[in-house]
Write a structure and sequence with these properties.
Elements lengths: L1 E6 L5 H4 L2 H19 L3 E6 L5 E6 L4 H9 L2 H4 L4 E6 L11
Antiparallel strand pairs: 1-3, 1-4, 2-3
Length: 97
């Protein structure tokens, strides 16, 4: 399992997005929906402060997780700056009850 942190490009990004940035962020959302549909994305969303977003993906390899991260339209456009963290689940509701 991999844990991705994607940082926003500037303060007040949501309020100050350009038309082009808004279009790319829509593509970013559609990309994440496709990853969910394909069974690779477990969860995704921004923290409530809006400072960054979190995505958790389940992949066979770190390279596959990097490929998912680097193919995100917001990353390709340079809007979002991603960081990949390898993650191992120790406890999980429903699995370890």
């Amino acid at each position: 399992m991999q844990f991705l942190i994607i940082k926003k490009p500037r303060e007040n990004f949501i309020e100050t997005m350009t038309e082009d940035e808004s279009k790319i962020m829509s593509e970013h959302f559609e990309y994440l929906k496709r990853m969910l549909f394909e069974g690779k994305l477990i969860l995704a969303g921004p923290v409530t402060t809006g400072d960054f977003g979190v995505s958790i993906v389940e992949t066979e390899t770190e390279d596959e997780a990097r490929e998912i991260m680097n193919n995100d339209p917001a990353v390709i456009a340079g809007i979002m700056k991603p960081t990949l963290y390898l993650y191992r689940v120790s406890l999980m509701r429903g699995r370890d009850d």
